[in-house]
Amino acid sequence: MRIACLVALVARQILVVDDEEAIRVIVQASLEFTAGWTVLVAASAVDGLQMARAERPDAVLIDVMMPGTGGVELLKLLRSHPLTADIPAIFLTAQIDLAEQETLKSLGDGVILKPFEPVAIAQKIRSILGWPD
Fold it and tell me: 68 with 48: CB under 8 angstroms?
């Protein structure tokens, strides 16, 4: 019981990989303020992959549509490396149809649709990953 309480007090570390600076800033500010989590940001899949391998975050939020290497390809690269294979990944994407959403859910751990309420994103992440409040 005591160990569980201590684990709950440890701040989560989240990596946000999105080519849009505004999204990175909003997500970072929201998660740091509302959840007290440490947020790492990367503007490209290449940078995100390097950061994930170096930092081993508790979860990665990945934009689907990025120039160059896209989000789905980034997730495949993360899953293929032993240091990052088990890191939960949630896709961030604009409105898509239900079939596309289900496809993304089958590849990663979940999907958060853009636009989203910044104050609610931490709760969405907790809900998708089964993390306690």
Answer: no
For 25-34, letters b (16+ CB in 10 Å) and e give ebbbebbeee
Longest dimension (CA), the chain: 46
Give residue 58's Cα distance to chain centre.
9
What digits encode the pLDDT tens for the residues 66-109? 999 999 999 999 999 999 999 999 999 987 888 888 889 889 99
Spatial distance between the Cα atoms of 81 and 78, rounded to a whole number of angstroms: 6
Q: Which domains does the chain have, with CATH numbers?
A: 11-129 (3.40.50.2300)
Q: Is the pTM of this model over 0.70?
A: yes
